[in-house]
Amino acid sequence: MSKSPASSKAEQARSAAVQHYLGTPSDLPREGVENISAALRALLADVFALYLKTKNFHWHMSGRHFRDLHLMLDDQSAELLAMTDPLAERARRIGGLTLHSIGEVSRLQRIKDNDAVYVDAPDMIAELCEDNKQLVAAMRQVHGLTDEVGDCATTSLLENWIDESEKRTWFLFEVTRTTFGSNS
Questions:
Q1: What superkingdom does the record give (predicted)?
Q2: Coil vs helix vs strand at 46
């Protein structure tokens, strides 16, 4: 379904107003800025969703390895939270927009929430391991976009966050192993 000329003009006027008030000058192409900032908004929504899920599991951890898992998830949630401001500010720095609300997070997030009253510790760890792998895959997609547009600063940030996320995945995977030296 195509947009009416009036709706298209209204969108152009809104975009011009936003650009006037919030547009940061950039040598990146406008379409690239819009695509990158949209990708960063979705990525930021995923990071917030994974942060809250990690804190949820940290708060509700129980069982035999409580202390170690509780502390590990606290460290991992802190890493995720530390990504949020640089992610949002990167979108703004290139002249794009970032998240505005929890509602926008819920509309954009691809990491699924877990609202269960109780989750066994092994299931928590396995779920977070998969979620971190999903986050890495999403970051690699954004990396491809930023590299294509020539946004080397965002590309560089993503490379560090990919490395941190792979480390979280590794730690979570190692916790799930039931025997020493077995990858099954």
A1: Bacteria
A2: helix
CA atoms of 5 and 167, how far apart (whole Å): 50
Cβ-based neighbours of 130, under 8 Å, separated by 6 or more: none
**What tens digit of pLDDT does each residue of 141-174 get?**
999 999 999 999 999 999 999 999 999 999 999 9
Domains identified in the chain and CATH numbers: 27-175 (1.20.1260.10)
- Interatomic CA distance for residues 90 and 113, integer angstroms: 26
* Cα gap 94→150, rounded to integer Å: 12
Nearest Cα to Cα of residue 49 among 4, 3, 111: 111
In whole angstroms, what separates CA 48 from the centre of its chain? 6
What pTM value is reported for the model? 0.86
Q: How far apart are CA 72 and CA 74, in angstroms?
A: 5
Q: What angle do CA 11, 12, 15 make, to 5 degrees?
A: 85
3-state secondary structure of 37: helix
- CA angle (26 as vertex; 83, 94 as ends), nearest 5: 15
